[in-house]
Amino acid sequence: MWEQLFEMIFKPDFLFSVIRITSPILFAALAAVVAEKAGVTNIGLEGIMSITALFGTLISYWTQSWAVGVLGALIVGIALALLLGFFALKLKTDIILGGIALNMIGGGGTIFLLYLFTGLRGNTGELTTPEMLIPQVNIPLLKDIPVVGEILSGHSLLTYIAFFMVFLTWLMLYKTSLGLNIRAVGENQNAADSVGVSVVRIKYIALGISGALAGLGGAYMSMYYSRSWNSGMIAGRGFIALAAQAMGQGEPTGSMWSSLLFGLANALKNKMEGMQGMSSYLVASIPYVVTVLGLVIYAVATIRRVKKTRRAQNAMTAPAGEEK
Amino acid sequence: MKKLIALMLALVLSVAAFGCNNAPADDEKGGEGDGAKVYNVVNLVNGNLGDKSFFDSAESGLKELADAGRITYKTIEMGGTDADQPTWKTTLDDVSSSGEYDLVICGTYQMPEYLNEIAAKYPNQKYLIYDSEASQPNVVNINYKQNDMGYLVGVFAAAMTTETSVANINEQAVVGFVGGVDSPVINDFLYGFIQGAQATNADIKVDTRYVNSYTDTATAKELALSMINDKGCDIVWGVAGLSGNGAAEAALESGKAWFIGVDSDQELTLDAETAAITLTSGLKNIGQSLVWFFDEWDAGNGHFGENILLGINEGGVGIVTDKNFAKVAPQGVQDKVNEAIKAVSEGTIQVGTAIGDETGAAEALRESVRP
Predict the structure, then answer these.
(1) Do B50 and A281 touch (CB under 8 A)?
(2) Residue A275: CB partners within 8 Å, gap ≥ 6?
(3) What CATH number did the domain enclosing A141 receive?
(4) Beta-carbon neighbour count of residue B334 at 10 Å?
(5) Fewer CB within a 10 Å sphere, N or C end of chain B?
(6) Which of A104, A108, A123 faces B245 most closely, judged by CB atoms?
(7) Of B81, B222, B273, which has the smallest distance from its Cβ to A21's Cβ?
(8) Is the ipTM of this structure higher than 0.95?
(9) pLDDT of residue B30
(10) In which domain, by residue range, is A48 found?
(11) Residues A125, B222: C-beta atoms closer than 8 Å
(12) CATH of segment(s) B39-144
């Protein structure tokens, strides 16, 4: 059994698939990070991804250009997130309910939109042409290195953008005044307000960025990962991203690692499906078991660290107490 | 501003409501049939038309009947998402209580729960459910011998996978099966598939993996890619609803495998590139089975309360034998498939079924042929 598994895992192909599975989750996780940093919870990611995936496909179909399609998905993503902001910030609806509404539109509304625009109702398979698909990129030099090249080269353009976005998001959050404002609003919006930061404006901006990132995730799903859009294709990736954000402590790099962990667990699951005597129900639970394990390990580490600092503090304060 | 938004929202909602219900309410064109009763039928779709498969097939069968003046019908699309589910039962109740319809049609494994309750409430209303089973005396249950269909596809795949003269075919006798969920219906396809494959090549290996979703195309693609790259599969059969297309994409992207479709002729519904690597499709002809049912009903056999299993002879299942099948498959392979069609329809070959099988024979066979 192990032999069979190792045979499939110790292949460049396996790590390649980890990265491929991680990319859409990473986009959405970064979207969750930015929104959460500004103190707005965007649980509509699943819906935004579903709708932008559809629009990415439709726009690229109309223009026969994948680049315009990706741009369209990005803009639609921003528009949807701002719509959520409009309801939550302006009309004062509960942002969680707003997010749920977006997810529901992503489920049923997309079919209606698809029908409205194309007359199709289930999937866009028959519309696909090669011009509509995001190209794969072979990186010169890197691609010639054995193993490493096979793992890292040849991914979709958006995959590289996703990992670059981790850096950009970190840069934006920690090295720009916008990032400072976003964090300030998220930490304590009254304090931010008192020094003249427009809280609502910052929240809109953070939601907009969040929508743009989710839009790229949607485009990845329908214009690269699958060759077409179909209803239900996001299949919970928007929610997994929320978990990845939480597991990553709301930080860009942390969320990247937790997204990669989800990617790894899923890739492992896909390989184990093909093994002798493995129940597919049991195997399907692997990503979730890994998540729980990850959280346990993280919690244990945190508790240890807290205890250690407390002990150190006690050691420092104890002599002072004796003197009295 | 607020008023304007409210107005726009109302407009959007009403358009949405209208858009979803603009099913072709058939006009009165019946009455030409030679004295036979013209049935008034309602077709409840627990999803949407346009799936190029199940629901469209049922719709085309009804349309054929309506065009022949044998029925008048109305199709109601109830939507297929979780949010739509609560309306399924109320819609069933509504059409039953109206008493307007001679027959209420619905289908798929998701409906029996609701149908049992409503059919018991309206004992005088007649119902038909396809591809699933209810347990009421006023319901006729139509199912399909997907194991027979699987057998034909299995014979074809096993014969094809060693034809190394054909592009993309390697010498290994390994084929793949991407299933939706590890459930009796899906395993019925699989059971027939493996039996057919073994009948053709005793040493065949079948890599079976389940997506655990009928809409997650991306995961289906990952599974199929692993079959192709790790196990040397050169033919993958996708039996997983919309997810199945992911297997087709994997075959295309890898450049070293073929895809087989299911339920409807997928060569007609996929994009040109993917259609080009689709060898054939196993067919479930829901529409033809409805026509068959009305033939029987006209002849006085309502079959209500019965479980009917339709096979090749009734047009319930089949396999596509034109287009790529005729173009790509060598004559020897085609002959084997045609022989199998003949043998199954004549009953000289009995294909085992996974439905209602408590012994786990299908699962045991599945594990024994893994590569």
Answers:
(1) no
(2) A1, A4, A5, B370
(3) 1.10.3470
(4) 17
(5) N
(6) A123
(7) B222
(8) no
(9) 40
(10) 2-317
(11) no
(12) 3.40.50.2300
